[in-house]
Amino acid sequence: MSPLEHALVALIPVTIYILLRHRRLPSKTMLSVVCFGSVFPDLVDKPVSYANLTPWGRVFMHSLPFAIPIVLVVLGYALITNRLHLGTGFSVGYLLHLPGDWHTRLLNGEIPPDLLWPLTSIPAHPGPAHWWGPHNINIIWWSAFSIITLSIVAIRMGMDISTQMKRSSS
Ligand SMILES: [Zn+2]
């Protein structure tokens, strides 16, 4: 799936849920968090794969042995800072990304070994993603976009953690 498709796959059910449960549209913060979660695996794994640090662009953050601990840490932080709804939004976006990439094989009852990497070995795959190429998204531009986005989020998270620590110590 392309990044836009991943975002839509996450945003549509979250928006419907919030509309039905709270009778209002999701906040801008919730939309941003869900969007970020839905493309987070591609923000990390496509540039990492392009740098030849992993076998291809659907392992590492795309793999359950990494995804589950990350989601648990995010949910734990969201819980202790009373923002469980935002942590859940990120987690829903993130966790929907994985079956989104593998929906054809999963619907056929097959579990791709890539989902369990590095616990399993995986076959060789060409390129970081099917949507990468001269007539599609340029991987260098995507990598630059990824680095900028992840840097902004890391700075924002650092500021947030610092604020929460000051709040809890006072
Ligand atoms: Zn992906």
Automatic annotation (TrEMBL):
- Sequence intervals crossing the membrane: 6-22, 59-80, 139-159
* Species annotation: Haloquadratum walsbyi (strain DSM 16790 / HBSQ001)
Q: What is this protein called?
A: DUF457 family protein
Note one Pfam family from the annotation. YdjM
Domain of life of the source: Archaea
Q: Which UniProt keywords apply?
A: Membrane, Transmembrane, Transmembrane helix
